[in-house]
Design a protein that fits this description.
The complex is a heterodimer of chains A (115) and B (224). With 115 residues, chain A is mostly helical. Chain A has two domains: 1-61, no CATH class; 67-115. In chain A, 79% of the residues lie in helices and 0% in strands. Chain B has one domain. The mean pLDDT of chain B is 92. The chains are: A mainly alpha (115), B mainly alpha (224). Chains A and B meet through α1, α2, α3, α4 and α6 of A and α1, α2, α3, α4 and α5 of B. Chain B: It is found in: Membrane.
Chain lengths: 115, 224
Amino acid sequence: MRPYRGLAIIFGFYALGEFTAYALNLTIPGSVLGMLFLLGALHTGLIKLGWVEGEAELFVRNMSVMFIPPGVGIVTYLGLIKSQAVPIFVALVLSFLITLVVTAKTVEFLRREEE
Amino acid sequence: MNPLGITLTLVVFYLFSELHSRKRAFYTNPVLLSIITIAVILKWFGIPYGSYMDSAVILKFLLGPAVVSLAVPVYKGRETIKAYAREIALGVAVGGTVAILSAFYIARLLGGSEEVLLSIAPKSVTTAIAIGISEKIGGIPALTAVLVILTGIMGNAVGPELLGLIKVRDRIARGLAMGVSSHGLGTARIILDDELAGAVSGLAMALNGVFTSLLLPHLIEVLK
């Protein structure tokens, strides 16, 4: 009956995150708040790693399949993508390149400074 | 609720995952291939997205607890975070901000509509968190999902080669750049070359998700 403890903790923190986001009218997704709360609970020892480790890893390992239904929703926006193909795809490629280079060079600079 | 949508999703994803385990390449990415295949099937048979989603919504719902579960790998990486705290904090803050601003402004410069700008801004963050942010700020979550996956595929396909081209050899810098620019798919690639860089990349991805979800909703108010 072990998985029920882990699942109850994970869903419980998700519910807590959603409730907090709703109650305080926050712009952070409830799931991210739930993650921060769980991280805090692990850190303070309120929740033991062993209680949630297996179940959490099952979720994280199988996350990929969960993106498919929202991704398929793209069929409803094909017209928009076609009409805005240039801004969408140029921004996507350039922004990726800029982010990769700037992050790498920033961290490399910090590391050299340390030596 | 009918069970066809979820069955179709699982079957298609299973088949492409098998293909991916045999031929590991960015163009066999099972998520992107599954999205395209299912979209084509829906169009072919004239099935409205709503009736597919009616059953596939269970999978989408599980993204919430999956994001909560990311606390476990972050907690397990706490020693690495402590050891490289300054690099990780600054790398995520600088890279995460640049990712948002560059995407937003380039798209705007080229005449992107507001819903496109809001959908593309969170594109460097792991998909589950990006979808949540997109929903919150008024973007199109489906468009965000696809843009995030395409971003990840770029990192997966050419990230380490580009870092070689600009002569970045530092392992911490390489890991951070991959995680911040191209989330899980970038991490999956760099971890094959270098385990330490991979661990840093995974942490950078999770922290960038938190950082972006804190920053972006407020930043958007200023940018708009």
